[in-house]
Amino acid sequence: MSYSTHDDRCSSNHAQRPRDDATVDYARFCGAERAVTVVGRALCRSPVKRRAGTATSAAGWAASASQAERRIAGMLGVHFAITSEQERSLLTADDDGDQVGELLEDIEESWDDDASKVDTDKAWDAIHRCLTDGTLDPDDDGYPLSHAVLGGRHLDDDCYVVYVSAAEVHDVAEALRAVDRTWLRRRFDAIDHRDYDGAQDDEDFEYTWRNFVAVQAFYDRAATAERAVIFTAT
């Protein structure tokens, strides 16, 4: 992950995000609250440009949401168990995209503690869905499992930079210990295939399960170390 400026942290082909009223229109068209997440809060989320005074069809919104889903599905996730100094710096920079990006770049480039980091590749998508309501909604109310990936405090309006406090890390770690393979498989199979870009077959589940186990162990280590956690995806 290399952040030189706020604008180039993601794709150089960003489109302008729709206004809130446009997002609500999309949700009405598709009948899915998840649309607010995909169109309004997704990482590097810029699915559609909307010219003032023009109407957007349901088909147009569906197409742009589908493009956003594919873009999100290709992003690689990383969790960091950050130090108290890094935590203070990130919270101070909250909502300042350029500063948050610079801090994250520093954290990644200087990181030398593999035990305090876990890469989830593309599996973070399915993991979050399994632990919540089957969507990528970061506002799912199923705390603490919801906070394992996307449900924490979002520090950036344009990219996924999700903060989980040390106290919340303890809650997440305890909740994750109770999740077994059978439970996760049942949740995995219940994901709406129309809303998920993965194969959703046995091989995809094994991939999801391996990465989940790594996340499970990571949160145990972070809780023991009394550290806060940051999740990012690029």
Report the CATH topology name of the largest domain.
Hypothetical protein yfbM fold
Identify the overall geometry. globular
What percentage of amino acids are in beta strands?
A: 5-15%
Largest sheet: 5 strands, antiparallel
Let me know the number of strands.
Answer: 5
Rg over CA atoms, rounded to whole Å, is: 17 Å
For the residues shown, what is the average pLDDT?
A: 78
User: CA-to-CA gap between the ends?
Assistant: 7 Å
Counting helices, strands and paired strands, the structural category is: alpha+beta
Helix content: 40-55%
List the total number of helices.
9
Task: Name the CATH class of the largest domain.
Answer: Alpha Beta
How many domains make up the 3D coordinates?
Answer: 2
How does this structure look, described?
The protein has helices spanning 20-30, 34-41, 58-73, 84-92, 97-110, 124-131, 166-177, 181-189, 202-224, and strands at residues 77-82, 117-121, 153-154, 161-164, 228-233. The chain has 234 residues and is an alpha+beta fold. A five-stranded antiparallel β-sheet has the order 2-1-5-4-3. The termini are close together. 38% of the residues are buried.
Quickly describe the structure.
With 234 residues, the chain is of the alpha+beta class. The chain contains 9 helices and 5 strands. The protein has a 5-stranded antiparallel β-sheet.
